[in-house]
Amino acid sequence: MTLVAEKSILLVEDEAILALYEKNQLEQGGYKVTHVSCGENAIQLVIEEENPFDLILMDIDLGKGLDGTETATHILNHKEIPIVFLSSHTEREIVKKTESITSYGYVVKNSGFTVLDASIKMAFKLFEANELTKSKKEHLETVLHSIGDGVIATDKDGKVIRINPVAEKLTGWTHDDGVGLTINEVFNIINVKTRLKVENPVDIVLKTNAVVALANHTVLIAKDGAEYQISDSGSPIKDLNGETKGVVLVFRDITAEYNVQSQIAKQANMLNNVLDAVIGTDFTQKINYWNKAAEKIFFWKSEEVIGKNILKVLKTNYSNFSEQEIIEKVNLEGSFIGEAIQEAKDGSLRNIEINLVLLNDEFELPSGYIFVARDISDRLKALKQIKESEAKLTQIIESAMDAIISIDKSKKIILFNGAAEKMFGYESNEIIGKPLDQLIPESFRNQHDKHIDQFGKTGVSRRAMGALGEISGLRSNKEEFPIEASISQISVNGETLFTVILRDVSVRTISESKIQKLLHEKENILKEIHHRVKNNMSSLFTLLTLQAKSQENHSVQHILYEAAGRIKSMIVLYDKLYHSETDNSVSIQNYFPSICSEIVSIFPKNVDVNLNILEEPIELNAKLLSSLGIILNELITNSMKHAFIEIQNPEIRLNISKHKNILSLEYSDNGIGIPETISFQNTPGFGLQLIGMLTEQIEGKIRIDRTNYPKVILDLKV
């Protein structure tokens, strides 16, 4: 059994604080944990760099870029690995969506490490079990698919539980359609002579609990009505206690053998009158029969070929096999049907359809061959002509999408499909031969004619739906309605034909109006949510502030003020969002002055705040501003705690500038300065660690610049 300490987990979480917490918990639980903040990095680690992770903990919401479900799908398309989704969502549709991707687990965030650890361990067990089951199943599937006979398995009630590919072909029932049906519904057999139903072998096995074989002259009637001569046997499926749990039915198609025997009997007095060449040979391929049709097709007289080897008389060219391979195939399978090219006596070539059958004597030993040949040269020429005449219709149909209307170069309708009849209210026979203008409102006719004429000159074969712009159709009742159209052209025998494909967008227009109304309602609901969240957070802020003021322990007091400051940064953001006219964004000119004054006011010391913010209005999304607000809170809190111990006129300075697409935030104070030993890469403090992680999350760069005076500089692409 693999130890937990040997398990390597990839944690995909874009929220830095949560990632730090989850990573710490998992490592304390004995796992090796690697954290990435986006789906693209996870794909690179697992697939491109092929890191040997044992399991992936996948957050669903990953900010911009791929979300968790998309990332998981991409990874699983390249590599088998257990994925457990870790999300704050509990909606049924979201959980169901993850189940369609992988079934190794879905853990709601903040459920506790015990739940998370149990889910991970269960995922490992499921993965190991699935791999073992998969291996066994693949082995059994290979064996079952390799069997040349049809195989149907049933339960003890005679209901089908398995159909192999050969049985699917013979019965006409696919595995999925046949499972659950009774054997008599899938395996319908009758006596070929009486045409009466024959008792099913499965029913007999279930009654007698013994192996049974099918009677002679049994015909299987397939789902589509096709009939096959078959032989079969049924055997009970028993468990370890000897109890019959079902039946396995094995059968094969002997139609070819049966047909050969029947054909020989019927042709005894007819062979010289048939149009096909019929040639008989012994088992060494020496000719012993040559009918009149064979003389006519191959120009050899019967007396010229009797006793000679057929392979030397008739030179046959099979497309995929040699002559010897065909003989071996017939010896093994009993018959061969195919096409070939054969040379006649005068050297001319014939396209031949061949039916070569192995003959057995009364002792069921091979005694010779029957060679039936039909000259299909003329038929192939006729088929070629038919295919050419059908090319016009085939190409038009292949371009079809919705309503299809084809016109000739004079713009008269030559094809009007059922969807067009329904859309315009005309029967096909009413409109064929009429000008296309009859289906277009008068105000659009000139414009539409120009579109078609111009399109015909371009030589382009097709323009996509909507390429003709916004147009309208005209129904038989003179009602106008909006449509989208695509157009294509083909050339058949030198004639240019146009096919216009139309889509009625009336319903879509109504739907778009409803969508706009729903979006407006959504905006109102979102603002109400922002308002309520802000009120709840304000309550938390008040409680933390009151608790801080009541503390005599300065360390505890500072911790509570820090927590209150972080919440305050979020309160300010929610307040700005609530009053914002834009969608989920706030300007930095509106946000930063408020957050600075609000955070400074939490602490008892009076500090001046000097802000220098560029005049150009810049809108940032709420998620980015939330991270920036917490970073600024940590910087101000550090100043309030450590910088102004002996400073008479404390001051905080924030300078925000922008160069091209880089937004720069420069923070400093007039306090005692930042020790040389402190950096964002080397700090024991949680606050500076948090600043570093949040900066990485928003893809920014932060540093301490001690030139002239100590200051913190954060650069961010906007």
Automatic annotation (TrEMBL):
PROSITE patterns: HIS_KIN (PS50109), PAC (PS50113), PAS (PS50112), RESPONSE_REGULATORY (PS50110). Residues 8-124 form the Response regulatory domain. Residues 136-209, 263-311, 389-443 form the PAS domain. SMART domains: PAC, PAS, REC. Residues 528-718 form the Histidine kinase domain. The modification 4-aspartylphosphate is found at D59. It is an enzyme of class 2 (transferase). This is histidine kinase.
